[in-house]
Specification:
By secondary structure, the chain is mainly α. It has nine helices and no strands. The protein has a domain of about 100 residues: Rna Polymerase Sigma Factor, Chain: A. Helix 3 runs antiparallel to helix 4, helix 3 packs across helix 5 and helix 8 packs across helix 9.
Amino acid sequence: MSAELAKLPDEELMLLVANGVIEAPATELFRRHNRALYNFVAWLCQGNAAEAEDITQKAWVKLMTRCADYSPQAAFRTFMFQIARNSWLDLKKSAAEQTREEVEELPDVAVDDLGVDTVLALQQDIGRVRAALLRLPPAQREVVALRYFSEMSLEEIAHTVGERFETVKSRLRYAFARLRNELEAPS
């Protein structure tokens, strides 16, 4: 059955879940979307991995409890990311900010093939980009994360964050201008 499920679009899998066929379709949806969802939430949480894991897990639980609310007019991914975003907003409003757990990742490069100086330069560049992204205003950081780390279209982003298409475009434009100015400045 899992090979058959792998061929189904997300919306049909979600309808199966809503109709009581839960484990296999939900597992397939999780396999397809958990990494992108976690990455998006991690950017919202400014790299706090524990908080991002908690929100991502709560989003999946809410999805299962709200599956009857799902309407195939909305793309599944948009629906799922809205749940996660709302969970983050609820947490942000209700809880004090926790200590961040810094997570540094190198790009997919065989580190053994690089010299020590090159590895250090890459880590420094990654650190500068990450720091610049985290300094963006939350609304700008959110659209950048959805666009480039979750690979959403501008229309999907607009629907997910509940803003107009033009607003999303403007936020991206301002974010990139700010990032460009910050990253082109001497360090």
